[in-house]
Amino acid sequence: MRHLISLKEQSADDIREILEMAATLKKKYRAGEATDLLHGRTLLMFFQKGSTRTRISFEAAMTELGGHAIFLEASKTQFMFADFRDEVRAMMRFGDVFMFRALDVADVLLAASFDQIPVIDACSEKYHPCQSLADILTMAEHSGGLDKIKKITWLGIENNVSNTLMLACGKLGIEVAIAAPETDANSIDTELNAMAAATGKVKKTLDLKEALAGAQYVHTDTWMNAEFFENGKPKPEFKDEYERREAVFMPYQLNATLIDTYAPGAGIMHCMPMHVGYEISRDAIEHKNSAIFDQAENRKHVEKAILLWLLEKKL
Ligand code: CP
Hints:
With 315 residues, the protein is an alpha/beta fold. The chain has two domains: 12-127 and 299-310, Aspartate/ornithine carbamoyltransferase (Rossmann fold, 3-Layer(aba) Sandwich); 129-295, Rossmann fold (3-Layer(aba) Sandwich). The protein is built from twelve helices and eleven strands. The strands form three sheets. Strands 7-6-5-8-11 form a five-stranded parallel sheet. A four-stranded parallel sheet has the order 2-1-3-4, sandwiched between helices. A two-stranded antiparallel sheet has the order 9-10. Phosphoric acid mono(formamide)ester is lined by residues 51-54, 123, 131, 271-273.
């Protein structure tokens, strides 16, 4: 049974197949052609954390594929007091694919271990494969083909998104420069790091000029995860950490001056949500090179391809 968790399981050919399907699905969507290959099928979407893009994109994806998506927020379910193993095995009896935004990837792996239906990690502390595939689709579109992407740069904190992006790019032969003074401790996966290093495509440096030289795309993500925030501001108990990170990471902020100085032709990428003025500036978001909203839209197109690929459907 196929699962999509860390992209460690997928070969370069698997990744290419998903991306090609996504590009075709997007063309068909734009042309108004039906792609209802999942008529009568159900996607189970289970969230232990908040979301804007993941929920909407998967739900829209399933609608456009002719199926149905069920949204469940953990706090409104019996998962709050029952044993996870029991609830998840029962839940997976009701659908065809289980999409899970988990607090702990161990629970995603546990759900997948039952091999009842395909499981998708929809952003755990370690991985975000749907985001990385959407990012690569976006870069391929902007470059005129996957084979035209030669080098990308990741700025800021190493985390779940950089893990899956660096591994996928490495597998596809794309050079990845990582300029990150710190790593989110919860995101560390030594096996993934070793696999990414073994591709020979990943280089880590704190020298911005070196990291950005020849970069076609520059990516970043928030320096602090959403759970540290409340009403758009850091929770009082995380204020000191917010300010500490601001001092450490500010030289690596994705802003227009940085792009115009070191990589004037590079596309500006952010997986969203963004903390404007923290890891990214408003002038970078509005920059002529910004591909951020294409990235967001491509979540849906790539997720349609992921759903079809997991269910071994051909277009
Ligand atoms: N990028 C992303 O996964 O967005 P959400 O957290 O809004 O789903």
